[in-house]
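Batch job 17 of 40 flagged for manual review because the log was empty.
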Amino acid sequence: MKQIVLIVFVALIGLSFQAKAQWAVIDPSNLVQNIQQVVKSSSTLTNMVKNVQETVKIYEQGKEYYDALKSVNNLIKDTRKVKRTIEMVSEISDMYVTGFNKMVADPNFTVDELAAISAGYARLMEEGGALITELKNIVTSSNGLSMSDKERMDVIDRIYNRMLDYRNLTRYFTQKSISVSFIRAKAKADTDRVLALYGSPSERYW
């Protein structure tokens, strides 16, 4: 967990831990291309692409830390929560890139609505990235090392629960955004096309 310091400490103890969780791989390039095809306003386009780039930045920040954790043994009982907190950044990023990519291709949304949705996702990603930074400071800094185990675990629990809230909020935000398209499609008797785009509720992971 504690990167260099913890790696050395774990090496002395000699415990073993194998990370089994998967880290989703996102490809924002297709999303950017779709945004460029749909959005004509240069300012709106710039803002939406900037949001995607910020998502990738936060995603890569989390992945870098996640990769470091994979090589560290399971020293203390809160390791799983630390790892799970970081994995949720990947889930949030994946919901954003996958879900929003479909919304950009959906004629039931206006450009202004897409810009607002993009800003909402960017805000969620920003808050998630701030939690990752806070988590890294707790588990890698001298301040984190000076805390008692209970104090450190209490902070980790708080960060984990907040990240879980953001993950769930991202899912809710995605579902509610898509529901707007379903309502509009139903009014136009065009639900089959929307279902083909997003899949049925049981088929969608968000």
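Reviewer: the log was empty due to a logging misconfiguration, but the result itself is present. Helices lie at 3-13, 29-38, 42-70, 79-104, 111-140, 142-146, 149-187, 191-198. Unflagging and moving on to job 18.
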